[in-house]
Amino acid sequence: MSDLEQLTQALARNLKRWRGERGFTLEALAARAGVSRGMIIQIEQARTNPSVGTTVKLADALGVSITTLLDYERGPQAHVVLPGQGVRMWSSGAGSEARMLLGDDRRGPVEMWTYRLEAGDGTASDPHPAGTFEMLHVTAGELTLHIGDDRYVVPTGGAVSFEADLPHAYRNEGAALLEMTMAVSIPPVQGTTARPS
Predict the structure, then answer these.
(1) How far does the chain reach from its first CA to its final CA, in angstroms?
(2) How far apart are CA 189 and CA 125, in angstroms?
(3) Nearest alpha-carbon partner for 58 in 11, 5, 106, 122
(4) Dihedral-angle region of residue 71 (phi above 0 means left; psi in -120 to 50 means alpha; beta otherwise)
(5) pTM (2 decimals)?
(6) 73, 41 in Cβ contact below 8 A?
């Protein structure tokens, strides 16, 4: 079984499990996540490999990290991620990519990512649930960060933090490669009265 097939199977199994644990019907999760009921059914039956945007929306709606949805293994004491490892969650034809290195749900969902953006490339994100917080550290190049209507430039060695409940985008508007590390803290999902379907 390929890595992609394993991730698809893990996502199917864990999405169904977490939806049940949260007490969400298909309709309730679809409404919370902004993802169609049909797409959720296809994911739970391992018949599709959703985009990273869809996966993020589902994780946000469930209040878990993407790592938890992908059943990413972690050791009891320490989980070491070697260079080049992690789950590639997004890539572009220009050679840019985003990798999720680590994630944990023990104290509320938190994730660590690396981004590599080629000159002129970028990626955008829909708003996350209120209370979601992102911290970015630029290790090479210069980041242009768009949050709603605001624009921020972060040079090599600089860092930025922000509430991620507005549309936001990461752009490399320079001529050199941009590399950055991102940590995301997601608020836990509150209880619900919905019943599983």
Answers:
(1) 30
(2) 20
(3) 11
(4) left
(5) 0.62
(6) no
Element (H, E) at 61: helix 52-62
What is the phi/psi pair of residue 149, to 5°?
A: -95, 0
pLDDT tens column, 53-66: 899 899 889 988 88
pLDDT score at 176: 96
Q: Find the farthest-apart pair of alpha carbons in the chain and give their distance in angstroms, rounded.
A: 52
* Cβ proximity of 125 and 184 under 8 Å: no
Contacts 24+ apart (CB under 8 A), 189-196: 189/22, 189/61, 189/62, 189/63, 189/64, 191/23, 192/22, 192/23, 192/24, 192/28, 193/23, 194/22, 194/23, 194/24, 194/25, 194/28, 195/23, 195/25, 196/19, 196/20, 196/23, 196/24, 196/25
Does the CA dihedral 154-156-162-164 come out positive or negative? positive
Q: Which residues pair with 18 in a beta bridge?
A: none
Whole-number Å distance between alpha carbons of 28 and 61: 10
pLDDT tens string 93-136: 999 988 878 777 666 678 889 999 999 999 999 898 888 899 99
What is the torsion angle, in degrees rounded to the nearest 10, for the CA atoms of residue 174, residue 102, residue 15 and residue 17?
Answer: -170
